[in-house]
UniProtKB/TrEMBL annotation, chains A, B:
<dbReference type="InterPro" id="IPR046867">
    <property type="entry name" value="AldOxase/xan_DH_MoCoBD2"/>
</dbReference>
<feature type="domain" description="Aldehyde oxidase/xanthine dehydrogenase a/b hammerhead">
    <location>
        <begin position="21"/>
        <end position="125"/>
    </location>
</feature>
<protein>
    <submittedName>
        <fullName>4-hydroxybenzoyl-CoA reductase subunit alpha</fullName>
    </submittedName>
</protein>
<dbReference type="Pfam" id="PF01315">
    <property type="entry name" value="Ald_Xan_dh_C"/>
</dbReference>
<dbReference type="Pfam" id="PF02738">
    <property type="entry name" value="MoCoBD_1"/>
</dbReference>
<dbReference type="InterPro" id="IPR000674">
    <property type="entry name" value="Ald_Oxase/Xan_DH_a/b"/>
</dbReference>
<dbReference type="GO" id="GO:0016491">
    <property type="term" value="F:oxidoreductase activity"/>
</dbReference>
<dbReference type="InterPro" id="IPR036856">
    <property type="entry name" value="Ald_Oxase/Xan_DH_a/b_sf"/>
</dbReference>
<dbReference type="InterPro" id="IPR016208">
    <property type="entry name" value="Ald_Oxase/xanthine_DH-like"/>
</dbReference>
<dbReference type="Pfam" id="PF20256">
    <property type="entry name" value="MoCoBD_2"/>
</dbReference>
<dbReference type="GO" id="GO:0005506">
    <property type="term" value="F:iron ion binding"/>
</dbReference>
<dbReference type="InterPro" id="IPR008274">
    <property type="entry name" value="AldOxase/xan_DH_MoCoBD1"/>
</dbReference>
<dbReference type="InterPro" id="IPR037165">
    <property type="entry name" value="AldOxase/xan_DH_Mopterin-bd_sf"/>
</dbReference>
Length: 777, 777
């Protein structure tokens, strides 16, 4: 391959300057002419009938322009199973339920108006655990489904069941077994940018949503459906996003507050802004899906994995968002991490009166990997193998097919494991372990965990595609119209690198046009670690179309064949003379010559790239991604046996990324992911009591801060994926996937306790230590 | 042709609602974060050396962020001959010359700072008429040209000379002759929207101009050149326009104030807004080019025109903008209005210390047509022919070539003349004229004038092209990316009609993306009446590309040949069953089917349309437009012989527009044009004394108001031009072209005086009447 000018180089993020200097415009900063401010009244009970809502006093408050309830509009059903609605009419099912909303001239008036709304409830018994939800005679949260068909239990009508091989036979033939139950709880996304939206109708009743969504085009469809419910059948819905202050999956669904903004704008004829408080972020946004996971795994006498059986119970909360579909990704590590033939997996989602759940970086994978990798470690212990060797023995290999029918092409898992072990001083540690001073209060331990995740997009929607348009001006400046949403992951930078490289122009000459559904062709959204892969491939495809035109024009002018010409860093030159040779000329010169003549032309191109990904079939099988990302994390921890505090002393994070498009931003993804994984492992948890979030602020929700940062070493493994743009695979999510089991395994290594519940807070570690001591005695 | 759904229908303007309800955002309304306000100090003398500028006091005023003069920057040369600069360094040459500028936190502070700037001048003798400028020993305004070559006179180095046939021979063979001198003066554009700009650099020194230009892409090049002078060689220049409050040619050039805003933004690192006052609009913007025109024409004994000779002297003012190039359009009526073989035309532009001149609707054509048509009327009188018959005899015919090598294809001039005559009751009037009561104080008269103008674009720049991109979403909503600028003429409406018609979608599903050079492909600008023709043809070309793709997809689905399918109003149907027949399906359905599958696609298209127009050669010959617009205006006036007041009682305005794309907006163009022509004829004039504009406000500058509106009847003549979009030709400028001569000819008809100077104010009419009475006696 010829030398690359941008791809593979460390490039600072192109959006960084505006962000650090305060020039970036967030939803907080946005103001529209005549804009009103909306506010939402939430439920007072986790489960209750709404007897009456009296808005009369609120409506009379000066400055209040609208007070609305569900009774003011036709029914609007939203969410994955359409079991939710922007405002709740007859019943509330959780404390985050929206019962009324206000639009006023300023946020303070809106807040005061909320206090004047009187709601009369008839409280109902609540269900706050999935086990209780399944109990006989448990009260029904939803009496019917969206189509009015009666429901007989709190189970969701979603079938998550996967089988491959012969589980029972494998069990009987296995020499070693390990089983356990693992528990993961709610984790909040904690985006530093608050949630908000401005809904605005024009005079033709077309809707513009000034939004922060990760999925502009799916959101467009959701809003368009809601408008139909309002009788607006042909309104254009335009989504415009400005700078998004973090997403991590929290903006992968459309939210009640957004539809409420639409209803308020529709009612008042004015743009209406709703901006969340930090408390609302914790209380009313949907966090990571909790899971109760039962697992058993076995291996033969040589340590080869023989089977894996996983049963999950998921607390869906009161309504169904993407959280309920996380089993579709949990299946990845369960079916396909390490080589194991005989698999059984079932997952059951049940309604409770808790907060409902959403997508969160990894989309179920951190939960499942915690379960699989903790238990695998236990199995290695059972057979008495070194956990590293055990993993290397069973590691995925290139050019294999997994039980879920994933076709593994590039795979650097073994290399990741080896490099992590090397970075930790694994061998040394194993030798020294015996010499651990038994009477020390602080004990060191080392742990490993691997991961697999989609790395080439994921066909979770009927299209996994990405449209792109490019337009060159007379100065050689390129506009790239892309539906890709930058949520802080650095896609803007990498996409500019890929485009500049693929077309052969200077990176500073590439501008992205983004975040506007009127301007940018369709994209399924920023999720599933797909943007670098998908938009990158779209850029290569579109650029090559454009380049062909350019070289054709240049060849006509220079009188040679296009194949003899090269375009690099905005210079066109003959292959025989090179970029500095005679006859080399700036791209702009060719463009002007092509343009400034009778019947001239200007250079544009458009393309749509949809990867060869398959949808999961009914048996949860199918190659949903044409490339697979692997990685391994390893940690050295020190456990304080007096306080239960787990300190990470060394954190090695190796990822098979196919190709490092930008080692600098890639490292950023790994740092960020590891930190999020670390928080998930050790401190982050939304604490609910009777459906109420108790820790709804940063002083109570223990997000790791900069001072908690352990020494993280990102290790980049390049395997040059055949389908990836310049060989790259997705890496957006992987960073947070294997952290928790790696740490849990290190804790085991240090003090011999297997932490089965996340987060591993000092209290829980201490309790487990005491339990162990009691048992040991 | 099949029935059309949108083209040819009366459609209200799609931008009207926002404009009348105050939702439209003008430059006045625009605010950028951290924005400063700029203000300009103009010269105190029409011609003087700048000895010294002391900015120290101004700079100390709290709130002032920058005070700049030409001495703070490298030289920046701007304008058509590069004889102008944003700030003047050594010399001022007119009272509108910019000598210093200020940026401050608010406009009031900026204005106060201007008062604190002390400029020391050495006054020089001024030249205030073109004749004086040509006098021997006249002081030189410019000692050198832009390249530093010495200039020896005040004549511009621009050659305007046209010859065809044998003038002298034709003169000698002619039986009748008429000659005269005509005088047209400065007319101000009087846009209701004030001029303004916000210049803003990003942190990479890329420039965004929030602008009101008619020529975003030419302006982009101008600004980029200025940035190069500042040492910024690869900065991207982005032009973004919001609603433009009128243009009429005033925004066809880049202006000193815009470059000053750039310099202030460059100096302060902040966005800087400069917004003109109404006084600045009159004082510092460049008005219509005045002209002193000498003409003689002749005909044979049958009334057939034999020759036309025109000599012009143009007061260029102190610097050169587009005004100096108006002879390139004056040549149209001079060479090609009516059939006449032997032509001579010269025009000389000279520097004076007056205000410099710009493009204005018609671009020299109103001046030239006033001269040609007034004199032609005189010639008809000489030979004793009815002016209508004389014109009909000599009128242009389809499929002819004029001495300027214009290839006239469609031509409805005769029909226009006949319809105007009919609308006026011409024949009746001719009969009754004899019975005019001689002793009446108020005398009625009827006059006619014809016009020719480019109707299919005009290659005045090396490209007359227009790039376009289209993108369809899953809902069948279309985004059209167009460089066309809406300056109030209604292009947005017509372009949506054309697109909807050509593609076969509902008009409300078409949205235009406009006014942003980053988003919209290149267009040479909104001028030369070209947008409906050029962007319309681009839309047809682009839509047909898109339609081909759509019908191909639909044919695959329906299993038929694409030719058997039709797309109309967003429904696809088989030609055999019709739009309501079985199997007809909404476009959106096809689009979704094409998109939502593996390896799916979305529909986009791009195109560049450049008409087969030629550039004028050195002899001022060439078919600069592939279609030619014709028209004729006729008026009935009443002249009050006691006050000199001319009242228009009946105004018939017939235009050969090829095809009326939208009769409603077309009538708007004719009304507006006629009113502007009426003002030009009767009341509008910028009064200068020693270079100073004396009437710089609407109370003194006599713009006709709604109460001055005569009964104007637009008459649409359709000739279905072969090159035009759906047969249409340009009509943006024609409306104002023949007004003045039609009225002048009517005044002659009424009272026997030939008004040779515009405007025909009551004072001038009265003076001429008295002169005539004196001569008659």
């Amino acid at each position: 391959m010829t030398e690359l000018n941008y791809v593979g180089h460390e490039m600072p993020r192109t959006d960084a300057r505006d962000k650090v200097t305060g020039r970036a415009v967030y939803i907080n900063d946005q103001v529209r002419p005549g804009m009103l401010h909306g506010a939402i009244l939430y439920a007072k009970h986790p489960h209750a009938r709404i007897k009456n809502i009296d808005c009369s006093r609120a409506g009379k408050l000066p400055g209040v322009k609208a007070v609305i309830t569900a009774r003011d509009f036709p029914p609007i059903n939203i969410g994955f199973l359409k079991d939710n609605s922007p405002l709740k009419k007859d019943k509330v099912r959780s404390l985050r339920d929206e019962v009324a909303a206000v639009a006023a001239t300023d946020p303070e008036t809106a807040a005061r108006a909320l206090e004047l709304i009187e709601v009369e409830y008839e409280p109902l018994p609540g269900i706050f655990s999935p086990e209780d939800a399944l109990a006989q005679n448990a009260p029904l949260l939803h009496e019917t489904d969206a189509k009015g068909r009666p429901l007989e239990s709190n189970k969701l009508r979603l079938k998550w069941r996967f089988e491959s091989g012969d589980l029972e036979k494998a069990k009987s033939l296995s020499s070693h077994h390990a089983s356990g139950e693992y528990n993961a709880t709610w984790q909040s996304h904690c985006c530093l940018g608050l949630s908000g939206v401005i809904a605005e109708f024009d005079q033709q009743k077309n809707l513009t949503m000034h939004s922060i969504t990760q999925i502009p085009y799916l959101a467009q469809a959701d809003y368009a459906n809601a408008l139909k419910d309002l009788g607006l059948h042909n309104s254009r819905v335009r989504i415009k996003c400005q700078t998004i202050g973090g997403a991590f999956g929290s903006k992968l669904d459309t939210h009640c507050y957004e539809f409420i903004a639409i209803l308020l704008a529709f009612s008042t004829g004015k743009p209406v802004k709703i901006l969340f408080s930090r408390e609302e972020e914790f209380q009313a946004l949907a966090p990571r899906q909790p899971a109760i996971m039962k697992i058993s795994q076995g291996c033969d006498e040589n340590g080869r994995l023989t089977y894996r059986e996983v049963k999950m119970l998921l607390d869906n909360g009161a309504y169904t968002s993407w959280g309920a579909t996380t089993p579709s990704v949990m299946i990845s590590p369960i079916s396909s991490l390490y080589q194991v033939e005989n698999i059984s997996f079932t997952a059951e989602c049940v309604y409770t009166n808790n907060i409902y759940c959403q997508a969160f970086r990894g989309y179920g994978n951190p939960q499942a990997t915690f379960c699989v990798e903790s238990n695998l470690d236990q199995l290695a212990h059972e057979i008495g193998m070194d956990p590293l060797e055990f993993r290397l023995l069973n590691a995925n290999r290139p050019d294999t097919t997994t039980p879920a029918q994933y076709r593994i092409t590039s795979c650097g898992l073994s290399e990741c494991l080896k490099k992590v072990a090397q970075g930790l001083g694994w061998e040394e540690h194993q030798k020294q372990k015996a010499s651990n001073p038994a009477d020390s209060k602080k004990l060191k331990g080392m742990g490993l965990a691997s991961m697999i995740h989609v790395g080439g997009g994921a066909r979770v929607y009927r299209s996994d595609g990405h449209g792109m348009m490019m337009k060159l001006d007379d100065f050689g400046k390129l506009s790239v119209f892309t539906g890709a949403v930058e949520i802080g992951q650095g896609n803007e930078t990498v996409l500019r690198q890929i485009t500049a490289e693929a077309l052969g122009v200077k990176m500073e000459d590439v501008v992205l046009v983004t975040h506007d559904t009127d301007l940018c062709p369709w994209d399924v959204g920023t999720h599933a670690s797909r943007q670098a892969f998908i938009s990158g491939n779209a850029a290569i495809k579109c650029a090559s179309k454009l380049k062909r035109k350019i070289l054709g024009l240049a060849a006509d002018l220079i009188e040679c064949r296009p194949e003899e010409l090269r375009l690099q860093k905005s210079m066109i030159y003959h292959v025989s003379t090179g970029p500095l040779g005679q006859g080399a000329m700036p791209l702009a010169k060719i463009l002007k010559k092509a343009h400034f003549k009778s019947q001239g032309q200007m250079l544009m191109a458009e393309t749509f790239y949809d990867p060869p990904n398959e949808m999961l079939d009914r048996e949860m099988k199918g190659n949903i991604s044409c490339a697979w990302a692997f990685g391994a994390h390893g940690v050295l921890v020190e456990v304080d046996t007096e306080t239960g505090q787990v300190e990470v002393l060394n954190y090695q994070a190796a990822h098979d990324v196919g190709r490092a498009l930008n080692p600098l931003t890639l490292a950023g993804q790994v740092y960020g992911g590891s930190m999020q994984g670390l928080g998930y492992a050790l401190s982050e948890e939304l604490i609910l009591k009777n459906g109420r979030v108790l820790n709804d602020r940063f002083s109570d929700y223990m997000l790791p801060t900069a001072k908690d940062l352990p020494p993280i070493t990102p290790i980049i493994v390049e395997t040059f994926d055949p389908q990836g743009p310049f060989g790259a695979k997705g890496v957006g999510e992987p960073g947070c996937v294997p952290s928790a089991p790696a740490i849990a395994n290190a804790v085991f290594d240090a003090v011999g306790i297997r932490m089965s519940r996340l987060p591993m807070t000092p209290e829980r570690v201490l309790k487990a230590l005491r339990q162990k001591n009691k048992e040991d005695k």
